[in-house]
């Protein structure tokens, strides 16, 4: 029970971290592309 | 410093540090808003950023908007009340709200690629009454959401700082209005990126830190030994958690997705080919963050912590104040300020879009509406909405009651709205009458104005079972098409039949929502299936579209000049 609940509690921050990475990578790619094209990102 | 629980004290952030954090947070967002501002804002960009934002910003914005302070508080509350399965029954279904709009979102963008609001599309599809019904429910929902976020800000200030609730709501309202007012939706989504990074980063750090500071894995056995947790709360398959928390949220999955203009606005803003990755990323981001934050409530339960003043909304600030050091406490403060600000700025943008497109724009007609006046309408709407939400926050109306009401009202709209995008026979009368009929039946069931027993009880339960079929059918239709949807709906209804009667009547929140779906479906279907209407969906694209074509031309000209001169156009319109 203890191990299972520990994994259950601590797995969510890992998912959060992965999502952060995916979003940040997308943002900075688009930012770099917008700079190359001489326009605002939005 | 009031005690959080026996032997522990609640840490507070001092006033100079609070001022520094607020200046850094709102000053930073204001600076971002300034960098993307234009002297001559484009009215369409003010509402939907030109319908072409990329994956990074749109996924960040969708995630940030859907994560609001109340959802963090509610997930922790679910964990505290229902144990280990509580946060799942809050966060998982909330995440699916984003995912389930995606297939319908693709269809909506296809028929109305340049629209600004769902209500505007309903105007093109049906007419004024349908548009106003949807716009009215959107306005009500956004004002309530805005109020709720201000209240969450006030409560945060009252617990984690020496400042009062009143100071908190004014600081949050002023901060959000300041950076959103000039550039509208563009400022909202741009600042959402930083806010989501702050929120997600804080959540990823705070959850494990609190876990180990509170005793680590040992807290579970200790909690059970101390009798803090019931067997039901230890179970991942708690029927209590499902019936009271999960099931009403499943019923609300489609309602919130359709009824919330903040989602629709992002649906119209993101580049059409990026709708799928955006919605999937936001689903995972929201689910992981909110379920993760809910673990604070689970930990509080195992630790035997009593909420301050008996108010479960205090759980998160209380856990942060108890187990985090000064630096991480500031991070938690920023996380909650970020979550409520990102949703509040989205609500302001949503409200301004409705006022601009549905109230001013469509009443004047596209081509006749003045883009300058439109922008003024949008900005004045933001100021009025902020003032109204501040008033409601001060008066401390029951947000939960209002949210339940709005959620059910959106439930009445789901079938008529979705079927209008696929079924050519749906008429304006069918749309309007079905929504009103569903609302009339829902109210007495939900608020138990009439005794739901005897024959009436069976009637409500029969409608509730039909409602289950409608919800499952719509969900199945979105992903698999009509035939599988009919099978899924039928199987769902048959599965519930053996135990639905003499059972569903005991859950008024759930049966109220289900009845709303069932009645709107039945009335809309029977008023439409014999109708001679054969709607041409290409009409929608002709009626909806850009209002501000003059500024579009100015921008194109300017971009051409800038590319010829090889000079970056940092300040368009200057």
How would you characterize the overall build of this protein?
The complex is a heterodimer of chains A (42) and B (574). Chain A has 42 residues and is an all-alpha fold. Chain A has one domain. Chain A is built from one helix and no strands. Chain A has one helix at 2-36. Chain A is rod-shaped, with a radius of gyration of 18 Å. The N and C termini of chain A lie far apart (49 Å). With 574 residues, chain B is mainly α. Chain B folds into two domains: 17-394, Sodium/glucose cotransporter (Up-down Bundle); 401-532, no CATH class. Chain B has 24 helices and two strands. Chain B has helices at residues 15-35, 43-48, 55-66, 69-82, 86-111, 118-125, 128-160, 165-180, 185-213, 218-225, 231-234, 239-259, 261-269, 275-303, 315-323, 326-364, 371-395, 399-422, 428-446, 454-480, 482-500, 508-528, 538-543, 549-564; strands at residues 3-5, 8-9. A two-stranded antiparallel sheet of chain B has the order 1-2. In chain B, a hairpin with a 2-residue loop joins β1 and β2. In chain B, α5 (86-111) crosses α13 (261-269), α18 (399-422) runs antiparallel to α19 and α20 packs antiparallel against α21. Chain A binds chain B through residues 1-3, 5-6, 8-10, 12-20, 22-31, 35, 38-42, and chain B through 36, 49, 53-57, 59-60, 63, 84, 186, 189-190, 193, 196-197, 200-201, 203-205, 207-208, 211, 216-218, 220-221, 234, 281, 284-285, 287-289, 291-292, 295, 298-299, 559, 562-563, 566-570, 572.
Q: What descriptors fit this protein?
A:
heterodimer, A: 42 residues, mainly alpha, 1 helix, rod-shaped, B: 574 residues, Sodium/glucose cotransporter, 2 domains, two-stranded antiparallel sheet, 2 strands, 1% strand, disordered N terminus, disordered C terminus
């Amino acid at each position: 029970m203890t191990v299972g609940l520990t994994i259950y509690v601590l797995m969510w921050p890992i998912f959060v971290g992965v999502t952060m990475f995916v979003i940040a990578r997308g943002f900075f790619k688009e930012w770099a592309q917008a700079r190359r094209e001489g326009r605002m990102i939005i | 410093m009031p005690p959080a629980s026996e032997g522990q004290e609640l840490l507070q952030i001092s006033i100079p540090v609070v001022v520094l954090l607020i200046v850094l947070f709102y000053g930073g967002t204001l600076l971002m808003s300034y960098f993307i501002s234009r002297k001559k804002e484009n009215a369409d960009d003010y509402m939907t950023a030109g319908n072409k934002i990329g994956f990074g910003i749109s996924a960040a914005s969708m995630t940030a908007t859907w994560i609001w302070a109340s959802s963090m508080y509610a997930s922790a509350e679910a964990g505290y009340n229902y144990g280990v399965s509580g946060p799942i029954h809050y966060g998982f279904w909330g995440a699916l709200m984003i995912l389930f709009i995606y297939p319908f979102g693709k269809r909506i963008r296809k028929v109305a690629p340049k629209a600004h609001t769902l209500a505007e599309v309903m105007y093109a599809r049906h007419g004024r009454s349908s548009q106003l019904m949807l716009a009215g429910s959107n306005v009500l929902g956004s004002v309530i959401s805005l109020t709720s976020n201000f209240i969450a800000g006030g409560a945060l200030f009252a617990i984690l700082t020496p400042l009062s609730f009143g100071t908190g709501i004014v600081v949050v309202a002023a901060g959000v209005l300041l950076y959103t007012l000039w550039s509208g939706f563009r400022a909202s989504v741009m600042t959402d990126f930083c806010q989501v990074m702050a929120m997600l980063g804080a959540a990823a750090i705070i959850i494990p830190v609190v876990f180990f500071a509170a005793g680590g894995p040992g807290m579970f056995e200790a909690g059970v030994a101390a009798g803090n947790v019931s067997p039901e709360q230890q179970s991942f398959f708690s029927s209590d958690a499902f019936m009271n928390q999960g099931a009403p949220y499943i019923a609300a999955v489609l309602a919130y997705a359709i009824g919330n203009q903040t989602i629709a606005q992002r649906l119209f803003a993101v580049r059409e080919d990026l709708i799928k990755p955006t919605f999937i990323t936001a689903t995972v981001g929201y689910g992981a963050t909110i379920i993760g934050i809910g673990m604070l409530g689970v930990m509080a339960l195992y630790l035997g912590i009593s909420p301050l003043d008996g108010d479960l909304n205090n759980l998160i600030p209380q856990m942060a104040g108890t187990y985090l050091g000064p630096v991480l406490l500031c991070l938690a403060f920023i996380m909650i300020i970020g979550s409520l600000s990102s949703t509040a700025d989205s609500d302001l943008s949503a409200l301004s879009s409705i006022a601009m497109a549905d109230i001013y724009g469509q009443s004047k007609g596209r081509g006749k509406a003045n883009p300058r006046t439109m922008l003024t309408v949008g900005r004045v709407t933001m100021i009025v909405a902020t003032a109204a939400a501040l008033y409601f926050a001060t008066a401390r109306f029951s947000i939960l009651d209002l949210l339940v009401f709005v959620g059910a009202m959106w439930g009445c709209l789901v079938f008529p709205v979705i079927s209008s995008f696929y079924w050519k026979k749906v008429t304006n009368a069918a749309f309007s009458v079905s929504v009103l009929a569903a609302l009339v039946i829902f109210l007495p069931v939900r608020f138990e104005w009439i005794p739901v027993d005897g024959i009436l009880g069976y009637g409500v339960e029969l409608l509730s079972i039909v409602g289950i079929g409608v919800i499952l059918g719509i969900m199945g239709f979105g992903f698999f098409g009509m035939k599988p949807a009919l099978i899924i709906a039928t199987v769902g209804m048959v599965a519930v039949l053996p135990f639905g009667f003499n059972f569903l009547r005991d859950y008024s929140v759930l049966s109220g929502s289900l009845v709303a779906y069932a009645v709107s479906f039945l009335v809309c279907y029977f008023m439409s299936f014999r109708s001679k209407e054969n709607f041409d969906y290409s009409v929608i694209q002709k009626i909806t579209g850009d209002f501000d074509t003059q500024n579009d031309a100015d921008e194109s000209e300017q971009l051409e000049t800038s590319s010829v001169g090889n000079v970056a156009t940092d300040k368009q319109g200057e």
